[in-house]
Design brief:
globular, about 240 residues, about 10% helix, disulfide bond
Length: about 240
């Protein structure tokens, strides 16, 4: 009986996938799937060596996707949901525990034509295990906030077109690789104003390894601390 219940619970978690569906600019909702490279379904990416880790499946091109203008220093909110609805269910399944991260990459020309390949990504936000005693994760906060999390775009970034990459890593089956589930959403933005900073950069794919302790980890084994993949946050 216990085995059957465990299988049922696993199946429920496996089907509780989600996507990034909205971005907000300084508190203003920009509409469903606007300025976002929308994947074909809500399934996660599990292969960290695949180009799908960049901007999700079919995410290497933004052809047909509009680009939104944002001033440097803007507050950008990302909003995730399991299905094309904002009510009636949790934004993401409560069983999907893990970190929330945001990266940005400057396009050499237009955001729409940028494939995000190479050493181009800068991490500007990361939140992981918030309370080891209660096992509260960043994903719990996102779920409590109706699927939303926010980041301030560093005001020192140069003006130009960028990809904004938000990422939620679900670790409920990550005790072996591949197991961690990467939910990725990329938005196309044009930053106005700004400065002349040259922040540190990583490659996606490239920087993540299946053996990383933030990717292959048993979160149910009295976990005391967690280090997310991708290195340190650049504050600008």
């Amino acid at each position: 009986m216990k085995a059957a219940l465990a299988l049922f619970a696993y199946a429920a978690l496996a089907n509780a996938h989600f996507t990034m569906q909205y971005i907000w600019k300084n508190g203003v909702d920009q509409g469903q799937n606007n300025y976002i490279r929308v994947p074909p379904n809500n399934n996660p990416v599990t292969d960290v060596t695949s180009t799908d880790i960049t901007c999700n499946v079919n995410g290497l091109s933004g052809s047909g996707v509009q680009t939104v203008s944002i001033p440097a220093g803007s507050n950008i909110t990302f909003e995730w949901h399991q299905h094309a609805q904002r009510t009636g269910e949790d934004a993401i399944s409560s069983g999907h525990k893990g970190p929330v991260q945001v990266y940005i990459a400057k396009a050499p020309s237009s955001a729409a034509s940028f494939n995000g390949q190479g050493t181009v990504w800068t991490k500007i936000y990361s939140s992981g295990l918030l309370n080891a005693q209660t096992q509260q994760w960043a994903t719990d906060v996102v779920n409590a906030n109706s699927g939303k999390h926010s980041v301030v775009i560093p005001s020192s970034l140069p003006a130009g077109d960028y990809l904004l990459r938000a990422e939620i890593i679900a670790l409920h089956v990550a005790s072996s690789y591949p197991g961690a589930q990467f939910y990725i959403g990329c938005a196309q933005v044009t930053i106005t104003g700004g400065g002349n900073a040259n922040p540190p950069k990583i490659a996606l794919p490239g920087a993540y390894k299946g053996s990383d302790p933030g990717i292959t980890v048993n979160i149910y084994n009295n976990l005391k601390s967690y280090t997310a993949p991708g290195g340190a946050v650049w504050s600008g």
